[in-house]
UniProtKB/TrEMBL annotation, chains A, B:
CDD domains: RsmE-like. GO terms for biological process: rRNA base methylation. InterPro entries: Alpha/beta_knot_MTases, PUA-like_sf, RsmE, RsmE_MTase_dom, tRNA_m1G_MTases_N. It comes from the Bacteria. This is Ribosomal RNA small subunit methyltransferase E. GO terms for cellular component: cytoplasm. The keyword Transcription regulation does not apply.
Amino acid sequence: MKLHRFIGDWTLGEEMAIRVAEAEVISQVKNVLRLGRGDQLILADGGGQEALVTITDFGRGYFDTRVEEYRWAKAEGEAETTLYCAVLKKENFELVVQKATELGVKKIVPIITERTVKLGLRFDRLAKIAREASEQSGRGVVPTISEPVEFSSAVANLSVGTKTVILEENGQEFSASIFSEAKSRAIFVGPEGGWTEAEIDQAKAKGLSLAKVCNFTLRAETAAIVASFLLGQSYEN
Amino acid sequence: MKLHRFIGDWTLGEEMAIRVAEAEVISQVKNVLRLGRGDQLILADGGGQEALVTITDFGRGYFDTRVEEYRWAKAEGEAETTLYCAVLKKENFELVVQKATELGVKKIVPIITERTVKLGLRFDRLAKIAREASEQSGRGVVPTISEPVEFSSAVANLSVGTKTVILEENGQEFSASIFSEAKSRAIFVGPEGGWTEAEIDQAKAKGLSLAKVCNFTLRAETAAIVASFLLGQSYEN
């Protein structure tokens, strides 16, 4: 049986007993998972540390646990990875955040492009989706989701050491060699309507790589999921 | 402006005028896209041929078009690709069918595994999703979706020439070399609960490769989307 993981504000590493008072976790443990005294779960601090704990007691508005073992969550890949994704329809962007989290992306930046139609993401909801996807996928670290940024300023502010790819139907076929040995990687995914010529020119002027990942036209959210996978791969060989 | 594509039962290749009488297409053209005389669209036969047509006239229950040009849809990859995916919750399996279609998978086989919980896919809906995703992605060919098959008989019936990968968390890291030069490829994606030991043993006995595509635990539908991407890639250098 797989143990359930919860990511929260716990201070891990010292105490041999941890009291859990987060209403959402308590409700999940009691009402959904129906765990009781003696059952085990994992508490993670979102910074990479985890504790395997056993429930010892339930109180009003809390439960107590005994720490069996401290350990580190599954290692994150070494590379810094950022997915720049055009703001999409709410449910599509939520899907992207969930999948990017599972696939190990470290930073998600919603971007506003010339053809971006939708705005108004709910950041509280996105943060919750990222936390839950981290819990489920065994990630120790929750990706950061930044405020939306204009495409042009995102491109302008890219650091020199970041190997950056713009997904574009007319680009070259994506090649693993683009990311090999890059310690910092980013992929830009455009909106349904695609990039404008001006945006492509801007990317070229900055020296970014234009690449496609499929011969067919992908929906933006599909491209973003594939991009998340490509960001997370190891390209050593 | 990108032209809209419709896949239907048209006989393409000879006539210079095509009458469209499919109620769904007519409704889409008139009510959703609001096209009129002189507007262009693409009719595709689902077998790889397309016609660029101009609307010439609307009648009761049909519209007429003039063929401007016959052409072939974007070429499909050469390899035969099959995604064997455990039957999932309805909306997740639908997502898989949509994304697998966009990413160029040619055949989707729902499989029943020991830990498959959900059954009862709606095949008419899945076929519609595959057709619409093909239309949108510019694919000339709609993937086939077969009836659900038991895992053990799917494995038993694999043809010798098919290079097959079972996605499994404890497998080796997926390597592009697995599929290079394979003209027929398949990937198996298990249910949320994972494969049983007996299933893994069966796969090993058949000589299939066990591979993982991520260090974290992926949801089944995420694994299936990544698998679809990997199936469709060209692995020549």
